[in-house]
Amino acid sequence: MAKQLKLSALDLSVIIEGGNAATAIARTVEIARLAEQLGYERIWLAEHHNMEYIASSATSVLIGHVADKTTQIRVGSGGIMLPNHAPLAIAEQFGTLETLYPGRIDLGLGRAPGTDQLTAMALRRNNLNTAYHFPSDVKELQLYFGNDNSDGRVRAFPGEGLNIPIWILGSSTDSAYLAAEMGLPYAFAAHFAPAQFRTAISIYREHFKPSAQLDKPYVLACVNVIAADTDEEAHVLATSMYRMFLGIVTNTRKPLQPPVPSMDPYWSPDVENAVKQMTACTFIGGAGTLASQLSRFVTETGIDELMTTGNIYDQGARLKSYRILKEVLS
């Protein structure tokens, strides 16, 4: 690679066919331990609700569990959907995590609900206007974590005075302006919403204002990576991921399915087109193919950090994918 690129992982504790929430979380821990061993920078977990086959809904709890099962890798949220929570509660939760695992906790924040509207209403007690408060809620969090709130009527303990990095997550251009204005690092969800990725990071860099946390723009891109010994094997493994996205597009979600020889029996041209649009930032292949594809992607986008997620059914193949990727980027 032309530049020193940090490499990280995203995991949603996806439940596989024949598995359950406990086995999904165990798989996440195993990925975290391997990522730590290989020298990955961080592993993030994502907040989703009312999704039968994703086990990361209580994100703060899961972050604590993964941090406890590892020793060095940074563990954080990719992200906490802040409109679902009172900023004080998140300050206390992440203040506690940082107290337990000092120097290892990241707080990535998103403004999307991470669920459907009805569930969002249940989480927010019928107040769907909280999404409009996102910028002020981020500032409130910064106040709770800072050293300037000692005279405040409301304070976060643990939390106050702790140096917990805040990230802004995005899947559109709106978040780019906010991350730039606040001088915060920017993580883009190109693994499922790639359409505005290049426009968003351009806006972020153009409008960035230095802050106490960050003196220059910092872009993390999350993408799908399926690596294997050969291109052919990788493309077979990727059918599990494509079937997962097919379930999202057609609202027929299932546990993560075993791979199949071909996707042809499973999707129509329209559905295939929709899935391929969602997964446009996906890299599939053996080491040589990935090296070429990722080198071009990193050079074109100038990203500072690559975060990858790999929804592979077989855990051994999944672990191997992370190993191959690390070798490719070393």
UniProtKB/TrEMBL annotation:
InterPro entries the UniProt entry points to: Bact_Lucif_Oxidored, CmoO-like, Luciferase-like_dom, Luciferase-like_sf
Molecular functions per Gene Ontology: oxidoreductase activity, acting on paired donors, with incorporation or reduction of molecular oxygen
Domain Luciferase-like residues, every copy: 19-304
Cellular component terms per the entry's GO annotation: cytosol
Family: To bacterial alkanal monooxygenase alpha and beta chains.
Name listed for the protein in its UniProt record: Luciferase-like monooxygenase
Native species: Parapedobacter indicus
Top-level taxonomy: Bacteria, Pseudomonadati, Bacteroidota, Sphingobacteriia, Sphingobacteriales
